[in-house]
Amino acid sequence: MLIAGNWKMNGDPSSLEEFGRMIARAPEAAAKGVDLVVCPPAVLIAKCADRATVSMIAVGGQDCHPDPSGAHTGDISAEMLAACGARYVIVGHSERRTDHGETDALVAKKAEAAQRGGLVAIVCVGETEAERDAGDALAVVKRQIEGSLPATLDPAGLVLAYEPVWAIGTGKTPSIDDIAEMHAHIRALLESRFPAVPVLILYGGSVKPGNAAEILAVDNVDGALVGGASLKADDFLGIALAAPNHG
Ligand code: PEP
After folding, report:
1. Which of 33, 83, 101, 200 is deepest in the core (most CB within 10 A)?
2. pLDDT tens, 90-100?
3. The pLDDT value given to residue 247
4. Are 43 and 16 in contact (CB under 8 A)?
């Protein structure tokens, strides 16, 4: 089970205290067989990673550029993230797809770059509310998975996050049956492409300590990608400790 926190564009050096509280409590999650990853804003990655070196918590980036270096003002490569101590990177988050017009093809290049840089790629997919209302959620996610996973992908360095766009930051979540249906669908897609390697499938979208136990108990839910509730150690650990025992 993997619980990954996405701090988005939140945090400043004072957030390192909160991260320290997460480090201090990471052994509680580890005792349950739950791995923790925190993806702070880029400016905090090196400091977080320095603090996390001997702890049971990994650090990740929120995005990377497809290229290893070059004239791309404002961008950060997977190699740079890795050099700062990151072990994971989120690619294709719906906020990147919406705010920056990222396509499946670009997300696939970023996932490839992540693995070239030695990082585990957390690839995000998920339908909009209109797509779900139209009955297209399963087809949309299939298309996104096919388009966002590069041909060269090593499944051992992949985590797939299903994040319905309409559930992110809204307090709304799909029904448990809908989560189960989508995760079974994603499992079947991943197993047909990577029959020998099990890939972790995370659910993301308004996961909180209060709903985590129910969501994390769903078949084929191997963890959560958490936005708002990952900013506070008590909430983040509350989610991790709600996971069914795997340790
Ligand atoms: C996210 O940003 O990936 C996310 C799931 O956000 P939230 O938990 O706030 O809905």
Report:
1. 200
2. 999 999 999 99
3. 47
4. no
